[in-house]
Amino acid sequence: MSGIPFDQREGWIWFDGEFVEWSQARLHVLSHGLHYASTVYEGERVYNGKVFKLREHTERLYRSAQLMDFAIPFEPAELEAASHQLLQRNQVVEGYLRPVAWRGSEMISTSARFNRVHVAIACWQWPSYFDPAARMAGIRLKTATWRRPPPSSSPFEAKASGHYQIATLSKHDAENNGYHDALMLDWRGHVAEATSANVFFAKGRTLYTPVPDCFLDGITRQTVIELARALDYQVIETTILPTQLGDFDECFLTGTAAEITPVQSIDEQHYRPGTACRELIAAYTSTVNA
Ligand code: PMP
Fold this sequence. Notes:
Layout: E1 12-15, E2 18-21, H1 32-36, E3 39-41, E4 44-47, E5 50-51, H2 54-67, H3 76-89, E6 95-103, E7 117-125, H4 132-135, E8 139-148, H5 164-176, E9 181-186, E10 191-194, E11 198-203, E12 206-210, H6 219-230, E13 234-238, E14 250-255, E15 259-266, E16 269-270, H7 275-288
Parallel strand pairs: 8-9, 8-15, 12-13
Antiparallel strand pairs: 1-2, 1-7, 3-6, 4-5, 4-6, 6-7, 9-10, 11-12, 11-14, 14-15, 15-16
């Protein structure tokens, strides 16, 4: 464990329309969101005081709530204004923003149709190191035993807390075995994504990435596809089987937190982070800082 626990930091948190001191941002233990995972959230990155792709993240937060059958009781513009004010109050210039919405305590049962929906936003410093040399070493992934469920079992486009229990189990299993993260397969056994990032493979100037038909089509994923096409990479969204993992030269993850993270290996399969990782990291760095 490292760092100050997240409930013991200093600064301000926006909570149901007001700025409250960090230590006072509390919810009751009998909250529906805690017991039944009726919670949605966003992870946003702040570069030079600006939230990268704020509109896209805000839209996804509202869509996630709608998919989980609840409505956020604020206008999108109110949350965006609150985020900007919060960044200023907490003097965060390079950092991370975490909006979260959850059902409250009026009912503690499967049904929660009349529960009030609460919203909070927190932010903290998170400098973007982007030391390309260190990053290029790459991380090691272990294929997870837990799989992404079929789209018929949950609204997979929602960034909803319930979906993360599989990710946490898989990430723990990877870390307990000396790996950095897990590669998750979907219910069919196709390559899906990492626990909180999308995955890409490169062979020469062609990129391959799984079709996001049962996992988040990440905002970073979409950005990287655009950047890659502008750099004359061919980008193919397709089925990737575990037996094909040896067909590629490079592999990398994309996500708001992961940015572009080269992958050194998946189980026994090794990759050599090279031109594709380097060019895309450079393009992504200049885009987020533009
Ligand atoms: N998949 C999962 C499961 C995630 O949690 C994330 C991070 N939000 C991503 C993919 C990447 O999404 P984004 O690029 O929008 O951060």
